[in-house]
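This part of the workshop introduces the protein records we will be handling. As an example, a complete record with its sequence and its C-alpha coordinates follows.
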Amino acid sequence: MRPLSLRPNPGRLSALALGALLMAVPTSVSSQTATHVQQPSVTVDGTASSQIEPDEAVFTIGVSTTSPELDQARRENASRLKSLVTALDEAGIQDDDIRTQNLMAHRDYEWNNRQRIFKGFQVSRNVTVKLRDLERFETVLGAILETTEVDLHGTEFRNSKLRDHDLDIRQKAVEDARRKAAAMAEQLGQSIGRAISIVDSRNPPQPPMMMQARMMSAEAAQGDQPITAPGQIEVRSDVQVTFLLE
Protein backbone atom coordinates (compact mmCIF):
# COMPACT_ATOMS: atom_id res chain seq x y z
CA MET A 1 0.00 0.00 0.00
CA ARG A 2 1.43 3.37 -1.11
CA PRO A 3 1.62 6.16 1.46
CA LEU A 4 -0.85 9.11 1.12
CA SER A 5 0.78 12.10 -0.63
CA LEU A 6 0.25 15.53 0.99
CA ARG A 7 2.03 17.53 -1.70
CA PRO A 8 -0.14 20.19 -3.42
CA ASN A 9 -1.26 19.59 -6.97
CA PRO A 10 -0.06 22.58 -9.07
CA GLY A 11 -2.58 21.96 -11.82
CA ARG A 12 -5.52 21.84 -9.45
CA LEU A 13 -4.43 25.01 -7.62
CA SER A 14 -4.10 26.91 -10.91
CA ALA A 15 -7.59 25.88 -11.94
CA LEU A 16 -9.04 27.00 -8.62
CA ALA A 17 -7.26 30.38 -8.83
CA LEU A 18 -8.48 30.96 -12.39
CA GLY A 19 -12.03 30.14 -11.38
CA ALA A 20 -11.92 32.56 -8.48
CA LEU A 21 -10.58 35.30 -10.77
CA LEU A 22 -13.32 34.74 -13.35
CA MET A 23 -15.97 34.94 -10.64
CA ALA A 24 -14.57 38.25 -9.39
CA VAL A 25 -14.40 39.96 -12.79
CA PRO A 26 -18.16 40.34 -13.44
CA THR A 27 -18.66 41.81 -9.97
CA SER A 28 -15.93 44.41 -10.55
CA VAL A 29 -17.26 45.41 -13.96
CA SER A 30 -20.81 45.64 -12.64
CA SER A 31 -19.64 47.85 -9.76
CA GLN A 32 -17.75 50.21 -12.08
CA THR A 33 -20.72 50.45 -14.44
CA ALA A 34 -23.05 51.38 -11.58
CA THR A 35 -20.62 54.02 -10.34
CA HIS A 36 -20.56 55.87 -13.67
CA VAL A 37 -24.34 56.00 -14.13
CA GLN A 38 -25.39 59.65 -13.76
CA GLN A 39 -28.88 60.74 -12.86
CA PRO A 40 -30.36 63.34 -15.25
CA SER A 41 -30.04 66.90 -14.01
CA VAL A 42 -30.58 70.49 -15.11
CA THR A 43 -28.30 73.49 -14.44
CA VAL A 44 -29.70 77.02 -14.46
CA ASP A 45 -28.63 80.55 -13.56
CA GLY A 46 -30.56 82.72 -11.12
CA THR A 47 -30.29 86.50 -10.91
CA ALA A 48 -31.73 89.20 -8.67
CA SER A 49 -30.88 92.85 -8.09
CA SER A 50 -32.18 95.86 -6.22
CA GLN A 51 -31.49 99.57 -5.75
CA ILE A 52 -31.24 100.81 -2.16
CA GLU A 53 -30.84 104.26 -0.68
CA PRO A 54 -27.57 105.06 1.13
CA ASP A 55 -27.93 106.18 4.73
CA GLU A 56 -24.31 106.99 5.62
CA ALA A 57 -21.14 108.36 4.04
CA VAL A 58 -17.44 107.75 4.61
CA PHE A 59 -14.90 110.51 3.97
CA THR A 60 -11.25 109.66 3.31
CA ILE A 61 -8.91 112.51 4.27
CA GLY A 62 -5.15 112.87 3.93
CA VAL A 63 -2.99 114.85 6.37
CA SER A 64 0.57 115.45 5.15
CA THR A 65 3.43 117.68 6.40
CA THR A 66 7.04 118.20 5.30
CA SER A 67 9.83 119.72 7.41
CA PRO A 68 13.66 119.63 7.48
CA GLU A 69 13.49 117.90 10.87
CA LEU A 70 11.56 114.69 11.45
CA ASP A 71 10.31 115.72 14.90
CA GLN A 72 9.06 119.01 13.53
CA ALA A 73 7.22 117.24 10.68
CA ARG A 74 5.58 114.93 13.21
CA ARG A 75 4.52 117.82 15.46
CA GLU A 76 3.06 119.77 12.54
CA ASN A 77 1.20 116.69 11.36
CA ALA A 78 -0.24 116.12 14.82
CA SER A 79 -1.28 119.78 14.98
CA ARG A 80 -3.16 119.59 11.68
CA LEU A 81 -4.81 116.37 12.74
CA LYS A 82 -5.95 118.01 15.97
CA SER A 83 -7.44 120.92 14.02
CA LEU A 84 -9.29 118.49 11.77
CA VAL A 85 -10.69 116.51 14.70
CA THR A 86 -11.82 119.73 16.39
CA ALA A 87 -13.63 120.86 13.23
CA LEU A 88 -15.31 117.47 12.89
CA ASP A 89 -16.35 117.53 16.53
CA GLU A 90 -17.96 120.94 16.04
CA ALA A 91 -19.78 119.52 13.00
CA GLY A 92 -21.31 116.81 15.18
CA ILE A 93 -19.08 113.83 14.39
CA GLN A 94 -18.54 111.44 17.31
CA ASP A 95 -15.02 110.38 18.28
CA ASP A 96 -15.86 106.72 17.56
CA ASP A 97 -16.57 107.65 13.92
CA ILE A 98 -13.09 109.15 13.36
CA ARG A 99 -10.28 106.73 12.60
CA THR A 100 -6.64 107.45 11.81
CA GLN A 101 -4.60 104.91 9.87
CA ASN A 102 -1.59 104.36 7.59
CA LEU A 103 0.89 106.62 9.39
CA MET A 104 3.95 106.99 7.15
CA ALA A 105 7.23 108.93 7.30
CA HIS A 106 9.95 109.17 4.65
CA ARG A 107 12.61 111.46 3.21
CA ASP A 108 11.34 113.72 0.45
CA TYR A 109 13.58 114.65 -2.50
CA GLU A 110 13.31 116.71 -5.66
CA TRP A 111 15.43 116.73 -8.82
CA ASN A 112 17.22 119.88 -9.97
CA ASN A 113 19.77 119.86 -12.80
CA ARG A 114 20.03 116.07 -12.55
CA GLN A 115 20.80 116.30 -8.86
CA ARG A 116 18.63 114.88 -6.13
CA ILE A 117 18.05 117.53 -3.47
CA PHE A 118 16.75 116.71 -0.01
CA LYS A 119 13.58 118.70 0.77
CA GLY A 120 12.85 117.33 4.21
CA PHE A 121 10.97 114.63 6.06
CA GLN A 122 7.39 113.99 5.03
CA VAL A 123 4.90 112.61 7.54
CA SER A 124 1.45 111.60 6.33
CA ARG A 125 -1.56 109.68 7.52
CA ASN A 126 -5.10 108.93 6.38
CA VAL A 127 -8.23 109.70 8.33
CA THR A 128 -11.61 108.07 7.70
CA VAL A 129 -14.75 109.75 8.96
CA LYS A 130 -18.16 108.07 9.07
CA LEU A 131 -21.22 110.27 8.76
CA ARG A 132 -24.37 108.52 9.99
CA ASP A 133 -26.81 111.32 9.12
CA LEU A 134 -26.74 112.38 5.47
CA GLU A 135 -28.78 115.48 6.33
CA ARG A 136 -25.53 116.93 7.71
CA PHE A 137 -23.43 116.01 4.68
CA GLU A 138 -22.87 119.59 3.51
CA THR A 139 -21.98 120.75 7.03
CA VAL A 140 -19.37 118.04 7.54
CA LEU A 141 -17.96 118.49 4.04
CA GLY A 142 -17.55 122.21 4.67
CA ALA A 143 -15.77 121.55 7.97
CA ILE A 144 -13.28 119.27 6.21
CA LEU A 145 -12.58 121.64 3.33
CA GLU A 146 -12.12 124.61 5.65
CA THR A 147 -9.44 122.79 7.65
CA THR A 148 -6.05 124.15 6.58
CA GLU A 149 -3.86 121.93 4.39
CA VAL A 150 -5.74 118.65 4.42
CA ASP A 151 -6.80 116.74 1.30
CA LEU A 152 -10.19 115.14 0.82
CA HIS A 153 -9.37 112.06 -1.25
CA GLY A 154 -12.94 110.90 -1.72
CA THR A 155 -16.41 110.23 -0.33
CA GLU A 156 -18.22 106.90 -0.50
CA PHE A 157 -21.92 106.48 0.20
CA ARG A 158 -22.99 103.29 1.97
CA ASN A 159 -25.98 101.56 3.54
CA SER A 160 -25.69 100.45 7.16
CA LYS A 161 -27.96 97.42 6.53
CA LEU A 162 -26.21 96.27 3.38
CA ARG A 163 -25.64 92.75 4.73
CA ASP A 164 -29.38 92.22 5.26
CA HIS A 165 -30.12 93.45 1.74
CA ASP A 166 -27.41 91.19 0.33
CA LEU A 167 -28.90 88.10 1.99
CA ASP A 168 -32.38 88.98 0.74
CA ILE A 169 -31.19 89.45 -2.85
CA ARG A 170 -29.27 86.15 -2.78
CA GLN A 171 -32.41 84.33 -1.63
CA LYS A 172 -34.36 85.87 -4.51
CA ALA A 173 -31.65 84.76 -6.95
CA VAL A 174 -31.96 81.16 -5.71
CA GLU A 175 -35.75 81.36 -6.07
CA ASP A 176 -35.28 82.64 -9.62
CA ALA A 177 -33.08 79.64 -10.42
CA ARG A 178 -35.67 77.22 -8.99
CA ARG A 179 -38.46 78.76 -11.09
CA LYS A 180 -36.39 78.48 -14.26
CA ALA A 181 -35.46 74.86 -13.57
CA ALA A 182 -39.06 73.89 -12.76
CA ALA A 183 -40.33 75.50 -15.97
CA MET A 184 -37.73 73.71 -18.10
CA ALA A 185 -38.42 70.34 -16.46
CA GLU A 186 -42.18 70.76 -16.91
CA GLN A 187 -41.73 71.21 -20.66
CA LEU A 188 -40.05 67.78 -20.69
CA GLY A 189 -42.78 66.17 -18.62
CA GLN A 190 -40.54 65.93 -15.57
CA SER A 191 -40.05 67.69 -12.26
CA ILE A 192 -37.03 68.89 -10.32
CA GLY A 193 -35.69 67.19 -7.23
CA ARG A 194 -33.09 68.26 -4.73
CA ALA A 195 -30.26 70.63 -5.58
CA ILE A 196 -26.86 68.95 -5.87
CA SER A 197 -24.73 72.02 -6.62
CA ILE A 198 -24.92 75.76 -5.90
CA VAL A 199 -22.33 78.30 -7.06
CA ASP A 200 -22.54 81.87 -5.79
CA SER A 201 -20.91 84.47 -8.03
CA ARG A 202 -20.04 87.32 -5.72
CA ASN A 203 -21.02 90.79 -6.94
CA PRO A 204 -19.73 93.52 -4.62
CA PRO A 205 -22.31 96.27 -4.06
CA GLN A 206 -21.77 99.20 -6.40
CA PRO A 207 -21.56 102.50 -4.49
CA PRO A 208 -23.36 105.37 -6.20
CA MET A 209 -20.29 107.56 -6.40
CA MET A 210 -16.71 108.05 -5.30
CA MET A 211 -16.26 111.79 -5.28
CA GLN A 212 -12.81 113.25 -5.87
CA ALA A 213 -12.77 116.55 -4.02
CA ARG A 214 -9.24 117.93 -4.23
CA MET A 215 -10.35 120.76 -6.52
CA MET A 216 -13.43 121.70 -4.50
CA SER A 217 -13.32 124.95 -2.57
CA ALA A 218 -14.71 125.78 0.84
CA GLU A 219 -16.89 128.44 -0.79
CA ALA A 220 -18.60 125.77 -2.91
CA ALA A 221 -19.27 123.67 0.18
CA GLN A 222 -20.97 126.63 1.89
CA GLY A 223 -23.23 127.43 -1.07
CA ASP A 224 -27.01 127.42 -0.87
CA GLN A 225 -27.40 124.52 -3.29
CA PRO A 226 -26.30 120.95 -2.49
CA ILE A 227 -23.09 120.11 -4.34
CA THR A 228 -23.73 116.37 -4.57
CA ALA A 229 -26.50 113.78 -4.60
CA PRO A 230 -26.08 110.36 -2.96
CA GLY A 231 -27.78 108.35 -5.71
CA GLN A 232 -28.53 104.67 -5.08
CA ILE A 233 -26.54 101.54 -4.34
CA GLU A 234 -27.02 98.51 -6.60
CA VAL A 235 -27.14 95.15 -4.82
CA ARG A 236 -26.93 92.15 -7.17
CA SER A 237 -26.62 88.39 -6.81
CA ASP A 238 -25.94 85.70 -9.44
CA VAL A 239 -26.12 81.99 -8.63
CA GLN A 240 -25.84 78.77 -10.62
CA VAL A 241 -27.83 75.79 -9.32
CA THR A 242 -27.97 72.18 -10.50
CA PHE A 243 -31.17 70.20 -9.73
CA LEU A 244 -31.81 66.49 -10.20
CA LEU A 245 -34.61 65.60 -12.63
CA GLU A 246 -37.36 63.24 -11.53
